[in-house]
Write a structure and sequence with these properties.
It contains eight helices and two strands. It is an alpha+beta fold. A two-stranded antiparallel sheet has the order 1-2. Pfam families: CxC5 (PF18718).
Length: 168
């Protein structure tokens, strides 16, 4: 069976899902979840394998997605289970990340400190050669509001993160 048939069959198993959630809402869910992949990863324990999507989203991520995609909260977990592999493999192109078509979603994201342009460190592991830790950098030492200046879209309100290593 083609993958799309499997996806829709799985989604239809949740009573009321097919009658409530549209394809556009599902597509927006996939796009927004892909944009906050680092945020999803940061909410996981340091031992989580970054190549595997988590089974559950953090509560604030669930509420963000229900508000921005207009999908009832009762369907968010089922929706995530259906598309999490797709979300985890999806790459977000720079132009798409800074596009205004999801501006309203990112305005809502401020309540949850989520943004499609959040600045993350370029590496997921400690770069100190003397550090014995093999765990990923996940201990968020803070998320700070910043202004990102772009050539294409001007100034954007977003966040910058600071991750620390628990090994040293």
């Amino acid at each position: 069976m083609p993958a799309i048939v499997n996806l829709f069959s799985f989604l239809a198993e949740q009573p009321g899902f097919s009658e409530t959630v549209t394809f556009d809402q599902l597509s927006q869910f996939i796009g927004l979840a892909s944009s906050i992949k680092n945020d999803i990863l940061a909410a996981q324990p340091p031992t989580h394998d970054p190549n595997d999507p988590p089974l559950l989203l953090a509560p604030h991520q669930r509420v963000f997605l229900t508000q921005t995609c207009n999908i009832p909260l009762e369907f968010i977990d089922h929706c995530w289970l259906a598309v999490r592999e797709m979300v985890w493999r999806k790459t977000v192109e720079e132009g798409a990340r800074l596009n205004d078509h999801q501006f309203e979603a990112w305005y809502t994201g401020r309540d949850f400190q989520l943004s499609g342009q959040t600045l993350w460190p370029p590496t997921q592991q400690c770069t100190n050669t003397n550090c014995p830790s093999t765990q990923l950098l996940r201990e968020r030492d803070g998320i700070f509001p910043v202004t990102l200046f772009t050539l294409r879209n001007g100034a954007r309100a977003t966040y910058s993160t600071y991750l620390t290593c628990g090994g040293m």
